[in-house]
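in:
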């Protein structure tokens, strides 16, 4: 076993094993590994699949003593205000640290769902000093590649629980779920539903757990039919809200686990001729710009996205300097931002 960073990885297969698996010569396999163009597409495909299947990683080339003043930020997408807030935080902290940032979007997996080696090869070629991953779900091969190359990295709001020893930054999602639900309870609501994100995502599970905890602490009965998952998708949240409204005893309030999904909830309520907050109180999560633009403006739990990103960059700088954080998980606090989408239930 070789310990090179956040986790221990076993020594992988040799290039000769990869070549034999793909049915090519070792020099041909080497050309593919090193990004040479003089390889037939079909041959390149066979070698790449063998590399991924066998978990091959190159020999370490990263040298901290020769590190550049550049870091990479790999984000899920650049099309959302969420990513904009993260990018803002990273850029501000990088400026203070005298670093440049290279941004890549959606490069951790191919369309077929297999690990994408492209961003790894580009990272090595650029000689970046470290990497930040936002909302990324890395594969064991990718974790192993980063560790073998001794490249420092930090996860911002990881999708699933990362391996032991991996440094990550997130928000206090459980407490945010508690705060949102307690706010609705304090207004007098007892029939409180939740439109959650994806079953597998850490943040979604924590927010729903906070919702359940707040109900239990208040002695309010938890209704399984009031818990709906919408995969952080606005259109799915729209359908889930309609389902809640069709229940024999629909809720009087709903905690929506993202502001983006709350837009779909607003639309569903409008379709049924219901008004917010007169007929339904709504609480979101994130405090994105959209929360202020809705009618009425959305009460939501503020997640400090820019601060999370800046904290991750500062942790990465420490790791680039050879210092390991005392704790691998950093959580920043959330808080309720009250606007006009919540009120006491009718009657």
């Amino acid at each position: 076993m070789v310990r090179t960073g956040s986790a221990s990885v076993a020594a992988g297969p040799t290039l000769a094993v990869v070549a034999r698996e793909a049915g090519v010569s070792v020099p041909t396999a080497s050309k593919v590994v090193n990004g040479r163009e003089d390889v037939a597409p079909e041959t390149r495909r066979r070698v790449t699949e063998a590399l991924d299947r066998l978990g091959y990683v190159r020999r370490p080339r990263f040298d901290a003593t020769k590190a550049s003043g550049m870091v990479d930020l790999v984000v899920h997408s650049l099309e959302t205000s969420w990513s904009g807030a993260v990018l803002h935080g990273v850029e501000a902290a990088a400026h203070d640290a005298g670093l440049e940032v290279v941004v890549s979007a959606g490069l951790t997996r191919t369309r077929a769902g297999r690990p994408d080696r492209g961003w790894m090869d580009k990272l090595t070629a650029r000689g970046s000093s470290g990497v930040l991953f936002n909302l990324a779900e890395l594969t064991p091969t990718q974790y192993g590649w980063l560790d073998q190359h001794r490249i420092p990295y930090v996860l911002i709001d990881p999708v699933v629980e990362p391996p032991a020893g991996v440094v990550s930054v997130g928000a206090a999602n459980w407490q945010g779920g508690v705060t949102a639900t307690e706010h609705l309870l304090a207004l007098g609501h007892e029939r409180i539903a939740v439109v959650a994100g994806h079953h597998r995502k850490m943040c979604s599970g924590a927010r729903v757990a906070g919702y359940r905890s707040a109900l239990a602490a208040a002695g309010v009965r938890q209704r399984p039919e009031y818990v709906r998952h919408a995969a952080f998708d606005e259109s799915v949240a729209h359908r889930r809200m309609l389902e809640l409204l069709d229940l024999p005893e629909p809720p009087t309030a709903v905690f929506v686990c993202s502001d983006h999904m709350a837009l779909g909830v607003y639309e569903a309520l409008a379709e049924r001729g219901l008004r917010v907050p007169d007929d339904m109180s709504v609480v979101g999560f994130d405090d994105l710009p959209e929360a202020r633009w809705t009618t009425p403006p959305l009460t939501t739990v503020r997640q400090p996205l820019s601060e999370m990103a800046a904290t991750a960059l500062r942790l990465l700088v420490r790791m680039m300097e050879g210092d390991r954080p005392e704790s691998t998980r950093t959580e920043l606090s959330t808080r309720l931002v009250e606007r006009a989408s919540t009120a006491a239930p009718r009657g």
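note: Residues 81-97 form the longest helix (17 residues).
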